[in-house]
Write a structure and sequence with these properties.
Length: 394
């Protein structure tokens, strides 16, 4: 049996990422001069229900939406061409505005985003069209378009993404931000991941999982879009890789369980000369992520699992470590419907090559969560929490 565990909302109650997201939007609201504005918990739930599950996307989309609203109010002068200077100019001319309907924005972007597409790129297309409909002077339109691109075109690249910079500054703290990224922090902040997150996995079930893994009857893996260190086979520190997936794993006590997370996928993308894990479509909701996770779960080999998954995606023959998964039952615990669709596609691809896998999809959502409806359309069963599902299958 192989078990794929998502992290946030499944293994960990992610207060830190929510707080970092809300603080990020509030930070930019202040920099835009629009007052005390940020996302509510309900807004974030709606973003996630629309498969906008990465905070670098939802943060950048929310900030860009605020920027468009600010442009509807008369500007004191032309926008500066430099994005941060433009924000300084807007902050110097504060104009409080009515809080946008972020939930409606989330639905608009989510519904328009194609399968496998980045929500931030969809938002860029939508908001650029919205910008064209505003009555702006020509001296304002070009910098405004430039700032939209700066916010949304590359929001997974720490060197170019303002919302990601502020979010990561809050999430891992300013000391760690400088340590792992080699960039000067934008503000002083404590590491919210270590302060706020709470484990959801019960210790007794954790112990049963680890015992079954040691007995080679069960093969768990943590697969998440969280940033992470590079593959475990890489022993020297690499700039830009932050141990956020590892922090979650240690918090729930699954220290010996393999991880397939953003840092691992991005390492492969860089090695292959691809435009990052996000630009190359490697990160979930891509099926690639799930395939690589299966190989790592069964063997613990991360680099070879990444290579084998890439071979499957480009239509090459099936190879080890994926061949070691033959005949297994795969359980996946997810709070994202798009990621459950991705695992489904992954198993279908592998079964077409003869692996004969059986898939059981477990959705995880509270009874009052808007995610529950979308999960029920793809999940084989929806649980209130991961512990209920594990009790059934162990």
């Amino acid at each position: 049996m192989i078990i794929l565990f998502d992290v946030d909302g499944v293994l960990v109650r992610s207060f830190a990422y929510r707080a970092s997201l809300q603080k990020t939007v509030a930070y930019f609201a202040h920099r835009l001069g629009v007052g005390e504005v940020t996302l509510t918990d309900d807004d974030i739930e709606v973003f996630e229900s629309q498969s906008v599950t990465v905070e670098w996307d939802s943060g950048a989309i929310s900030v860009a939406a605020l920027f468009l609203e600010r442009l509807k109010i008369v500007l004191a002068g032309p926008l500066a061409p430099d994005p941060w200077a433009a924000l300084d100019g807007l902050a110097a001319d504060p104009r409080p505005l009515t809080r946008p309907d972020f939930s409606a924005i989330a639905r608009r972007v989510g519904e328009a985003t194609p399968s496998g597409g980045l929500p931030s790129h969809t938002a860029l297309a939508l908001f650029t069209a919205d910008l064209a409909g505003l009555s702006l002077a020509s001296a304002e339109t070009l910098p405004a378009t430039s700032l939209l691109h700066h916010l949304l075109a590359d929001c997974y690249n720490i060197a170019h993404a303002p919302a990601m910079q502020i979010f990561q500054n809050y999430a891992i703290g300013h000391v760690e931000y400088q340590q792992y990224y080699g960039l000067p922090p934008r503000l002083e902040s404590e590491p919210l991941l270590e302060k706020l997150d709470r484990p959801l996995l019960k210790p007794a079930l954790r112990d049963r999982l680890l015992a079954a893994r040691d007995a080679h009857t069960l093969y768990p893996v943590i697969y998440t879009a969280r940033p992470s260190l590079p593959p475990i086979e890489i022993t020297s520190p690499l700039r830009g890789y932050t141990p956020e997936a590892e922090i979650a794993r240690n918090m729930v006590g699954l220290d010996r369980v393999p991880i397939m997370a953003f840092g691992k996928l991005d390492w492969l993308a860089q090695r292959l000369g691809l435009p990052g894990a996000d630009g190359a479509g490697l990160i979930k909701p891509s099926s690639f992520h799930s395939i690589a996770a299966l190989g790592a779960a069964r063997t613990g080999l991360e680099i070879e699992s990444l290579k084998a998954a890439f071979a499957v995606e480009r239509g090459d023959h099936l190879r080890y470590p994926l061949t070691a998964c033959a005949g297994e039952t795969v359980h996946v615990f997810e709070d994202s419907s798009s990621s459950l669709h991705a695992v489904t596609r992954a198993v279908e691809k592998l079964n077409r090559q003869g692996l004969n896998l059986k898939l059981v999809r477990h959705g995880v959502a509270a009874p009052d969560s808007p995610k529950r409806e979308t999960l029920s359309k793809i999940a084989d069963v929806v649980h209130e929490n991961v512990n209920d599902g594990l009790e059934e299958i162990l």
